[in-house]
Amino acid sequence: MLEISEVSVRYGQIEAVKGVTLSVKKNEIVALLGVNGAGKTSTLLAVAGINKINTGNITLEDEKIDGLRPDALVKKGISLVPEGRKIFGKLSVLENLELGGYLRSKNENREKLEEVFEIFPVLKERKGQPGGTLSGGEQQMLAIGRALMSRPSLMLMDEPSLGLSPKMEELVFKVIGEINKRGVTVLLVEQNANLALNIAHRAYVMETGKIKLSGKAGDLLKNEEVRKLYLGES
After folding, report:
1. Complete domains list, the chain, with CATH
2. What does R_g of the chain's alpha carbons equal in angstroms?
3. Model pLDDT for residues 14-30, shown as the tens digit of each residue
């Protein structure tokens, strides 16, 4: 479905992503792991059209998409749940969700809104409440719901567990699994390797802008290096 081939991303003289190649098959959850500064978010934002790539190419369903604007990529079925959620705090929950469906018709949005409320009942209860008054976990749900409103076939998720309590982390990752079962493919950037590897089908580990390890998630969970560096085991 998604193919990233020999992609590099620069910020001035700094090369944050160095010839990364990875793939995401339809209906998979693929995790991209690594410490801060490894190049995970830079790679994800390149797929979303926010970061320009310097070399390589990105294709979706065999169609070249690098160089397209973010709104054009949304039309092609790519949505982003950004790091830090970035909801509109002064707008209501409903208004935030409606913004996610700005490229869709009213009928499509009405239908999708019911699905989002089915997945996140708390958002329905608080649809008139300003987004900024929600808890951190509820704001993460809102960010995911907003991304779902565009009817994505591929969802890019950047650090969905960031700043959440263990209980809320578990709930959010349960929801990611549910979204995947509903037919949405997921590319997941996450520092919490244990959470990510327990939900993903496959995973890549990045280090200093390059792919260091890759494989089935279950195999990486058993990998000594992964367990030592990312699962805190000695």
Report:
1. 24-50+68-204+211-229 (3.40.50.300)
2. 17
3. 999 999 999 999 999 99
What whole-number percentage of the chain has pLDDT above 90? 77
If you average pLDDT over every residue of the chain, what do you get? 93
Rounded CA separation 101/49 (Å) = 18
Distance CA 118, CA 143 (A): 15
Joined tokens for residue 130: 């300003």
All residues at 6 or more sequence positions from 176 whose CB lies less than 8 Å from its CB, including other chains: 29, 144, 157, 160, 186, 188, 199
Using one digit for the tens of pLDDT, what is the confidence trace for 198-216? 999 999 999 999 999 999 9
Distance between CA atoms of residues 164 and 144, nearest Å: 14
- What is the Cα–Cα distance from 1 to 66, expressed in whole angstroms? 14
Contact 87, 130 (CB under 8 A): no
pLDDT at 233: 56
Alpha-helix runs per DSSP H in 68-165: 70-75, 93-100, 106-119, 121-125, 136-148
Three-state DSSP class for 177? helix
User: From the CB of residue 84, how many other CB atoms can be counted at a distance below 10 Å?
Assistant: 12
* Order of strands, sheet of 55-60, starting from the edge strand that comes earlier in the sequence: 14-24, 2-11, 55-60, 63-64
